[in-house]
Design a protein that fits this description.
Largest sheet: 4 strands, antiparallel
Distance between the termini: 24 Å
Radius of gyration: 24 Å
Order of helices and strands: HEEHEEHHHHHHHHHHHHHHHHH
Number of helices: 19
Structural class: mainly alpha
Strand content: under 5%
Shape: globular
Helix content: 55-70%
Length: 471
């Protein structure tokens, strides 16, 4: 991909630099806030060589693929840095009013909440993926050593457990400690990082947000009858949101000369009291209820629950709402060590790959073939967005058949008891995250989902005459 050409083409078809308010990116998408939506040429955006799809929401999201999104966003932001403020087509007041009207038209309250959660976790996602993969690698080392120690009746030696004795004999104990420190530095302090990004999302003081997150994992909490981490990330996000509201109200009544001293002090006292005596206990009940509900659904719903949940996930991904589930995945890991819902979620990847492969073989459109050849390997390795937006949604029926195929992968995940001990990307990248060494079971589940989606898409495509269409 020529990143400069793609970046400049996006700028051109979005009404020029003067129409941009904010540009950022996630794993696969360049996310843009524009001042005037009517200046955006959606069809021209979709036609840019290298663009796999466009999602029009509260932000305009152009899908270009993993690794590419950050480079294209950087190019656009570099060009925006040189833009004088006078080039902005609307005043601040007009712009905010316009954005508020557009959001009110497009978003329900539930969607707004999910979008906020997604925006909070998007900046943390790369670190979550890296830490999850490294945790998986460490689990492979530890589980292998534990199995060897049990099979050969290795005894503990001094302060070393049998597993550590084997790791030491293999000269891998230091590496295991290194990986353990690295991954626990993320997951152990995730509440702090979440507090920081939540404060940024809600326009508050990011250090205050991080401080409130730190309070929820303080080791002194048992002295107040609380457990470190009680209420989880749900409590942190709610507390930081409330802090941002309180901070704005306090600032209205505090004299300017005392603002820098009194405002943070008052806000911190109010919010710490609310956090410790109201939010953490209440959020703990909510968090436990969600976890028990999902675990009960998976336990009692069985393979039917696996099918329905996996079949629904491509729809959530297409709307960019799947990041909103990260707090639930993390809470499951904190509570049980496993995230079974995430294993079900990533079966959507299998369904989309299978459907896109069928489209590649069926279609006579050379442009679609070119896009599919580039999208399928990327989705096999990591994320499903390239096949979702580049192939299956444009094909129409393939998105539905791919989602149904994903459901069969979800059934296999439940049937074989596949789970993960981390969160991250899908496809082959998820292998190190698989818990209890069930790598073959994960691959089998993925292949079942992929095959089911391929067969369904092939049959429907033939019936619809898709293989005879030239465009």
């Amino acid at each position: 991909m020529n990143y400069n050409l793609v970046g400049n083409a996006i700028i051109k078809h979005c009404g020029g630099l003067a129409n941009f308010v904010h540009v950022t990116n996630c794993m696969t998408r360049v996310r843009m806030t524009v001042a005037d939506q009517t200046q955006v040429d959606m069809q021209a955006l979709k036609g840019i060589d290298g663009v796999l799809g466009v999602v029009e929401d509260d932000t305009l999201q152009v899908i270009v693929g993993p690794g590419k999104s950050s480079k294209v966003a950087t190019i656009i932001n570099d060009l925006l840095k040189g833009q004088p403020a006078s080039d902005t087509p609307l005043s601040d007041v007009e712009l905010k009013a316009k954005q508020a009207r557009e959001k009110a038209k497009k978003q329900t309250r539930t969607k707004v909440i999910l979008k906020h959660i997604a925006n909070i976790f998007v900046p943390i996602l790369p670190a979550l993926i890296a830490a999850g993969i490294l945790m998986g690698l460490n689990n492979v080392l530890v589980n292998s050593a534990a199995s060897w120690a049990m099979a050969n009746h290795i005894a503990a030696l001094g302060d070393f457990s049998p597993t550590q004795v084997v790791l030491d004999q293999r000269h891998l104990l230091g590496l295991s400690h290194f990986l353990d420190i690295l991954t626990k530095s993320l997951f152990g302090f995730l509440a702090i990082y979440t507090g920081v990004t939540a404060a940024r999302e809600f326009d508050g003081n990011i250090i205050m947000g991080g401080l409130l997150g730190a309070i929820t994992i303080a080791p002194q909490l048992p002295e107040l009858g609380l457990m470190p981490g009680q209420g989880g990330l749900i409590g942190v996000i709610f507390c930081v949101w409330l802090m941002c509201l309180v901070e704005k109200q306090v600032r209205k009544v505090v004299p300017d000369v005392l603002d820098v001293v009194l405002t943070p002090t008052i806000v911190l006292l109010i919010m710490t009291s609310a956090l410790l005596f109201v939010i953490m206990p209440a959020a703990g009940i909510v968090s436990d209820g969600i976890l028990h509900g999902l675990n009960g659904l998976l336990a009692k719903g069985g393979i039917a629950a696996g099918f329905v949940l996996s079949a629904l996930f491509p729809f959530l991904i297409s709307l960019g709402l799947h990041h909103g589930l990260f707090p639930i995945h993390i809470e499951m890991i904190n509570a049980t060590g496993h995230a079974p819902l995430f294993a079900i979620q990533i079966m959507s990847n299998a369904g989309m790959v299978g459907a896109a492969t069928a489209v590649l073989l069926l279609t006579r459109d050379p442009v679609m073939k070119k896009i599919a050849r580039g999208a399928i390997p990327t989705s096999i390795l990591a994320v499903g967005e390239p096949t979702i937006f580049g192939v299956n949604i444009p094909a129409g029926f393939a998105f539905i058949t791919g989602s149904i195929g994903a459901g069969f992968g979800g059934m296999m995940v439940v049937l074989l008891g596949v789970s993960t001990n981390g969160v991250g990307a899908a496809g082959l990248s998820a292998l190190p995250l698989i818990a209890d060494g069930k790598y073959l079971q994960y691959i089998l589940s993925w292949l079942v989902g992929c095959t089911a989606a391929f067969v369904l898409t092939w049959i429907v495509g033939k019936v619809r005459g898709y293989d005879k269409a030239t465009a």
